[in-house]
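Below is how a single chain appears once it has passed through the pipeline. First comes the sequence as given, then the structure the pipeline wrote out for it. We keep one example in the README because the format questions we get most often are answered faster by looking than by reading.
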Amino acid sequence: MLNYKSLGFKAGLEIHQQIDSHKLFCKCPSITNKREAPDLTIKRKLRAVAGLSGQKDIAALHEQQKDRTFHYEFYNDCNCLVELDESPAEKLNKEALEIALQLSLLLNAKIVPKIKVMRKIVIDGSNVSGFQRTALIAKDGKIKTSRGIVKIPTIFLEEEAAKKIKVSGKEVTYRLDRLGIPLVEIGTSPDIQDPEHAKETAEIIGTILRAAKVRRGLGTIRQDVNLSIKNSPRMEIKGFQDLKSIPKIIEYEVSRLLKEKTKQPEVRKAEPNLTTSFLRPLPGEARIYPETDVSEIETKHLMKKIKIPELITERSLVLEKQFNLQPELAKEIIEKKINFGSLVKKYPRISPKFIAQIIIEMPKELKTRFNIKYNFTLSEFENALELANDHNLQKEAVSDILIKMANGKKINPEGYRQLSFAEIEQEIKKIFQSNPSLTPNAAMGIIMKKYSGKINPKEVYDFIKKMQ
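Resulting structure:
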């Protein structure tokens, strides 16, 4: 077991979250995951240029030495000349800026008086222009964790990179659908004390992000970890998609530093086996210079319009108390933006707890037990809830309905009619008449096999016990 304190362990996070709006410097919609053939493909080679300091960045020079040729796939419905670097950037997306300012306030940060867009030299091919536009919007934020305060010195608003599709020798293909989507970058101080603390910090920031209008789904949020130990330079580890992997990757990287004694700061990639591999030298300030095509933005008047959204944790607490729900159920309902109150009102014969179980827990259970991977729509859930409400259905019957929906089978509402207690009473008497030595559990098993979902198990079992 590593003693992170004695190792002089220091770590900070960089969280990159896509904002749910059109692109940052043009009006193109944020449509991603294109599959069809592109409308246009262009080819470029990129070279390092000097930044504001007059120096060329070490990471940019490293990429230039690879002498790669980049192919960019362009789509008419989500790209324009701005992404191709054939037209100047348009005005900064006002909606994206307002969302980023909301997030900054939720992170207890101070908004800068003027927002100035800068260019950050990036010649790994992820941007056609050879630079990424970025702007500092807030600083000196902080969040509370179980291990104390974690400071957030900077919050940036910037444009997302293009997506790498394939590499063949020195030929690299990127897709431009993702390029230019608004992205908020949140950087913490090296206040993180150990791997589990890193995971907790990422989770807290992630919860705050979901309070605002951000994109959801795979690839819309990424975490980078910056870490070091005594007598070792800083390492930046990129490529985290799953928060659960953060502790183990940090543990492996610290073990690697203890063995290999790396001398230079590096950017490293998180691999699927939780180890890391070298990407490039760690970039410095030499890669920054001003963006002359975008005007400065004063924030004083803009801040009067900004409303701070309510955190998911606060909304889930209200839901929890109002409907007596378990905390995790309430949190997921809020995160999925389900109007739970209207469902409770619409289906009064179903308990709020059972409604929550149907829409949150049952799909997970079907995936675990039957390997059914299906994204139920709200309309499909409502169809199941309507049957449950009309026929007073039990869990087994609702589960069966969802299985049929997932498999595309027709559902016959009459097949889910609840048996009256008189009907089931006669059936139980017949079972014991044919086999008087049956235990209550054995009799219950016979009944459930035949009438699962059409009876109330507790009522039936209590009746069986009374008959013994």
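The chain has a mean pLDDT of 90.

See the next section for the split statistics.
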